[in-house]
Prior knowledge:
The protein has 166 residues and is mostly helical. Helix content is 85%, strand content 0%.
Amino acid sequence: MDTLLAICALVCGIVGLLGAIIPILPGTILSYVGLICAYFTSTSTLSQGQLWLWGAISAIAKLLDYILPGYFSKMFGGSRAGVVGATVGVIAGMFLLGPLGIILGPFAGAVIGEMLNQNQPIEKAIVVGAGSLLSFFVGTGLKLIVGGFLMYYIWNDLIVMIQQIW
């Protein structure tokens, strides 16, 4: 059972890190599930306090992932149309342009959303698009940091078991 839990922990941790970049995957949540799997192995040194702390941090990171685009869009003068456009742009960009679309999609979507709904001049729409792009980088960075720490704890918790196997 320990081997299965260890494999699940590592897979969830790695896929969780990928989820920090790929919007469809719930990155921090998957990484946290990996930490829980590592906790239930017989060689675990993780405490319940660590689980609660990282659970809260993961939930906050996930919540901020939803809040940041709207916040940055509003901060840069955007409307709801810009926020919706950025969201649609992430999804469309990912399917049309792959990894590059994940970066360019929110920008293009916010610009198009602002121009269509508010009839904004292109300069203002580009500023809102830049805010959307900035929120993507901030959110992705936050998720990568949280996922990286979770992966560190998963690996450190499983290293004893891995050393016993080898």
